[in-house]
Amino acid sequence: MKICLFNNNRLGVVDGNEVLDVSSVLTRIGASEYPYPRGDQLIACLPELMPVIADAIQFARRYPLSKVTLRSPVANPGKVVAAPVNYQAHLDEAIEDTATFSRAHVRKIQETGLFLKATSSLVGPDDSVYVGLPDRRTDHEIELVAIIGKRAKNVLAKDALSYVAGYSIGLDITIRGPEERSLRKSLDSYTVLGPWLVTADEIENPHALAMTLDVNGKVRQSANTKDLIMDVAELIEFASKFYTLEPGDLLYTGTPEGVGPIQPGDTINCEIERIGKIIVNVEAS
Q1: pLDDT per residue over 230-243, tens digit each?
Q2: 72 within some domain
Q3: Is residue 90 within 8 Å of 106, Cβ to Cβ?
């Protein structure tokens, strides 16, 4: 199932070129009192909501997909966890390009570890990316994103995929420079997620998905998740040793080779097999 949030955070199911409004099921989540529970409550309740959503589809109002505004499919992630240099070819290009990539940031992922992005940087696919520091080089990075579905701590890789609610396309927008990654990658609009959440049952093997990114029609990144250094399951094992992963946490799994600069006026087209595609405009802030 393809689950989206659209317009003023209506809940939808994507069926071909239409969005079916199933927002009525949101009342099943229930009210929470302060202090609110950690994590995204829609994602936390998704297993119980799935049969209710299936029933609601029968009576749902339909909207043309082209006429709605798609939001981030996860509204309230507690954490955005990201994997640096997790494709060998990207590591190789970073090592070779000493002018662009700081030497401190070209170590293997097993050595450098993961990093966090500010949740305030998260936007949906129909939002624009706003170049925050125009005097600095700003790059695109396409990534497969795993959306955590239930609390995970010290999970083994062999069990890890059972903790995934679904998958989405991510854009990890990046300013190049010597600062820590979490600073350079956390400007407003620098974390794009969309177009929807594809439930994990529809992607049995996330380690064989082709992906492409083009800017203004010119292909820059073309790869397959089979080339990940640490695959999705291994990343969840790695991350859950350090963090307690909560429902709705986002795991950006790394970008392949071909990263390059973007500027206001550009259009970024991203596609990942079995998930879909997003088209993101770049604007001046």
Answers
A1: 999 999 999 999 99
A2: no
A3: no
